[in-house]
Specification:
Shape: globular
CATH architecture: 3-Layer(aba) Sandwich
CATH topology: Rossmann fold
CATH superfamily: Vaccinia Virus protein VP39
Length: 178
């Protein structure tokens, strides 16, 4: 696994051994960040279900000011912290160990990315609904192309879907209420 572009381009990232973490494929990350590029500079990015941190680290590499990482696995959190330290960006990151849906309602970010284990479909509704109560921003959910996510979760409304093979990205925005 490597950082695709930006300040840390081509730097290698450690990944935990085993099947506990499913890293976002390079091609899908490239598509994601091509879409997000105009919004990244100086933003706060939240990488929920972070694994080794590849998506959040990519956001930091491309101009995000800070990243909040949330990961349940202790082994993955250790690897994530090693990756941040090796790049010298631990000071731009906040790492929380626990279930993302526990923290989702209290996080404040400009962009939220979530990628729960595909078999844990209940995590999508729980986490998206909690984020949907937050202020303005965008939310991207990576999911199996075979899973149809809802068009809306509370104040979140989907505005785009990008499919690449077995993976899809659903883009949501938080609607302002008058």
């Amino acid at each position: 696994m490597r950082v695709i572009a930006g300040e840390f381009r081509s730097r290698r990232l450690k990944t935990p051994q085993g099947l506990e973490v499913r890293p976002t494929p390079d091609r899908l990350r490239e598509s994601l960040f091509s879409i997000l590029m105009p919004r990244l500079e100086g933003c706060v990015f939240a990488d929920l279900y972070a694994g080794c941190g590849a998506v959040g680290i990519e956001a930091l590499s491309r101009g995000a000011a800070n990243c909040i990482f949330v990961e349940k696995s202790r082994k993955a959190v250790e690897v994530l912290r090693e990756n941040l330290a090796s790049l010298g960006i631990a000071g731009r990151a906040q790492v929380m160990q626990g279930n993302a849906s526990t923290y989702a309602g209290s996080l404040r970010a400009d962009i939220y990315f979530l990628d729960p284990p595909y078999e844990r479909t209940e995590e999508y509704e729980k986490t998206l609904s909690l984020i949907g109560e937050q202020g303005p921003g965008i939310v991207i959910a990576q999911h199996s192309s075979h899973l149809a996510l809802e068009e809306e979760y509370r104040r979140l409304r989907r505005y785009r879907v990008v499919k690449q093979g077995d993976n899809s990205l659903s883009f949501y925005e938080v609607l302002l209420v008058d």
